[in-house]
Amino acid sequence: MTRTVVIIEDHPIVRQGIRSIIEEVPGIVVSGEADNGIDGLKVVEVEEPDLVLVDLSLPEISGLVVIPLIRDRSPRSRILVFSNYADGELASAALEAGAAGYVVKNSDVSFLVTAIREILAGRNYLSPSIVKNIHATVSPHGGSASGPTDVLSNREREVFSLVISGKSSRQIGKVLHISHRTVERHRQNMMGKLGVKSVRELMVLAAQSGVLAPRRSDLS
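-> structure tokens emitted (220 positions)
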């Protein structure tokens, strides 16, 4: 099955480069492009792509504003940020807004390809420099060598996996066939046991424990 990508990036040469990279990946095509946030939202509404690759520095409206609007207008679309900035706070804000991944533009091409594949497979992805920089912005967590999720119940582990895959509480409820309120209760219990206060801290913990491990891949 062919998967579709929309690129929202204001620099033509960067858009062309991203398109060229994606065209080398079997089974993935670029179905639309835009050079600003407003036009990008229009393209996303029409195309409803599997993945939206978005820059944070956009004309008209910023990428941080665009991300939740994409999730609202095309819930099936997952979002990958491709940005010049390796700032941990900025990356955290993008993740909180609803992005499923973050790759810095000076990364090796293989990281971008891996990110696209991982996110289209339903997982999340952070380039290594972002994991390091986000970690610098959060408090260190305690934990045993046996793994942080060992303290969770089976249901809390299910919620944990679905949260770090980028699903909202309502989407989790549908997957697990439980109410939104029940999901919120499990989510609060799970985050309390793990000692985290936000999704970004949860993703850092997942990355540190190997659940959300950055990986490299080739174009082939």
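Confidence is low (pLDDT under 50) at residues 136-146, 213-220.
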